Amino acid sequence: MKRLRKQFQGLYWRQMFVTAGMVLLTLLLLGASFFSLSYNYARGQKSEEIMAKARVMSQLSVSYLENGRYMDIEDLRSDPDFQQLASFAAIVSDVHFMICDTEGHVLLTTDQGLEGKVVTMPESMSQEILEKGASARRDNLGGLYESRHFVVGVPAMNPETQEVVGEVYGVSTTTSLDSMWQGFIGLFFMTAFVVLMISFMASSITTMRQVHPIREMVQATRRYAEGDFDIRMNDYGRDDEIGELAASFNTMAESLQQTERQRREFIANISHELKTPMTTIAGYTDGILDGTIPPERERQYLQIISDESRRLSRMVRRMLDVSQLQAIDPLKSGSHFDICESMRRVLISMEKKITDRDLDVDADIPEEPILVLGDNDMITQVIYNLLENATKFARSGSTLYLGVTTIDGKARVTVRNLGDTIPAEELPLLFERFHKSDKSRSEDKDGVGLGLYIVKTILEQHKEKINVTSEDGVTTFTFSLAME
Fold first, then answer.
1. Mean per-residue pLDDT pooled into runs of 10, the chain (484 residues)
2. CA distance 386 to 346
3. What is the Cα–Cα distance from 174 to 462, expressed in whole angstroms?
4. Euclidean distance between CA atoms 98 and 86, whole angstroms
5. Alpha-carbon gap, residue 435 to 155, rounded angstroms
6. Are 430 and 389 in contact (CB under 8 A)?
7. Which residues of the chain form CATH 1.10.287.130?
8. Where are the domain boundaries for CATH 3.30.565.10 in the chain?
9. How many C-beta neighbours within 10 Å does residue 220 have?
10. Are 427 and 470 in contact (CB under 8 A)?
């Protein structure tokens, strides 16, 4: 029971019920409005039609009185000519007439069903005729008729004296209007049922097309929660919001898959980087403690332990630096600094490393200051990391290039070296965390694979990107900074 109730609370049934309710409410409002307006109009037309015929009969009744043929209006009952005239008028006009005295007592009627009966019209109608000059209503006249008829009453007045000598009532002889509206109501409900069924079918198809992709997304998210990021959504060739949602969902899945892959690579890389110095430290320490390493060589291995400890410390510090850099907004303060001065300071600090590698430097740095927007210390770190990386992998005896130019309102910094060509498939990986080429792993024991990742992180914080090319042994790193 709970499962069934939950199923009917789903989006599909909610949409179905809302659609059915709106269609049904619209049909009811339209039907009620149309019925009310048209029925009142038809009723008014019917009343006016009967009233006009009743006034004609009123004039005929008065004309007989004016000729002096009757001493009293009650003599109308015994006048066959007038009865014949009234019956003919009733047949022609399809209206029953009742000629009454001023108190509403029926003296003559064309309705054969009322012959021999003492009939008195409602007092309220007589009073209304005397006060307003006419009366119209739908009534069964106190049970005289099984159903309600249109009843219209008018006064019979002497045209000369304007004296009311009686009342004339016209009663519709059929219930054609009621029959017509009963037929209309039946047709309305039949039409409403057909429209409702069509709406159900259209809503069912439309809602199913909306719900089916959502159900697939629900299943996909459960798979993602289990760590399976290979599933993709089908957009069904739709260009609407569902298609956009499916495309965004697939983009999110690809991003999650990429993040998961990077996370696994990060764990594998950091495990490798941490395991090497820790294994070295533990191994040599145990060798000294158990006497495997002779006393005369202890100093040599203690120096190795010290170097590995410092390398481990540098790696942890670099990882902390990355976390801190990602939380900084260098453009928030909007400060400017001279990029040329920062490049000169980096060259001075790198002088010993460049000299040890027997390298020359081609420095294309203008004497005039070039002011750029950003954090001076962070950009100095970028230049230092790039120049250090270029020095490390440059061919001995070659020339490094460090220069800056201004293009389109930006300062473009370039660092270039001559060494081994980096394969094209490896270029996008240079800025990943802990990525190091095989050559780097064999010759560069101090590197931790975070230098270029820090460069990319800092430039992303400055809303900039870094580009790298490597052809014929010439590797070039280029980045830009806004000057305003």
1. 48 72 79 73 74 81 53 52 73 80 80 77 85 83 78 83 82 64 72 79 75 77 77 71 78 79 69 72 86 84 83 71 65 82 90 90 93 88 90 92 93 94 86 59 50 85 91 94 85
2. 10
3. 91
4. 9
5. 111
6. no
7. 231-327
8. 336-482
9. 20
10. yes
Among 3.30.460.10, 3.40.190.10, 3.30.450.20, 3.40.50.10490, what is the CATH number of 2-179? 3.30.450.20
pTM for this one? 0.45
Strand blocks (E) in 87-246: 95-100, 106-109, 135-139, 149-157, 164-172
Whether the Cβ atoms of residue 418 and residue 473 lie closer than 8 Å to each other: yes
List every span in the chain annotated with CATH 3.30.450.20.
2-179
Q: Which helix (H) or strand (E) holds 400?
A: strand 399-407
Considering the domain 336-482 in this protein, what is its CATH number?
A: 3.30.565.10
Report d(CA 101, CA 163) in Å as an integer. 12
Q: Which CATH number fits domain 231-327: 3.20.20.10, 1.10.287.130, 1.10.8.60, 1.20.1300.10?
A: 1.10.287.130
Helices (runs of H) and strands (runs of E) counted in the chain: 12, 12
* Distance in angstroms (rounded) separating the CA atoms of residues 267 and 275: 12
- Extract the tokens encoding 301: 């291995």
Q: Which residue has the tokens 């980087």?
A: 273
* Residue (of 88, 97, 92) closest to 172 by Cα position: 97
| Burial class, 181, CB count within 10 angstroms (exposed 0-12 / middle 13-18 / buried 19+) | middle
- Tell me phi and psi for residue 229, to 5 degrees: -105, 15
Q: Tokens 């619209």 identify what position?
A: 26
CB neighbour class for 398 (10 Å; exposed up to 12, middle 13-18, buried from 19): middle
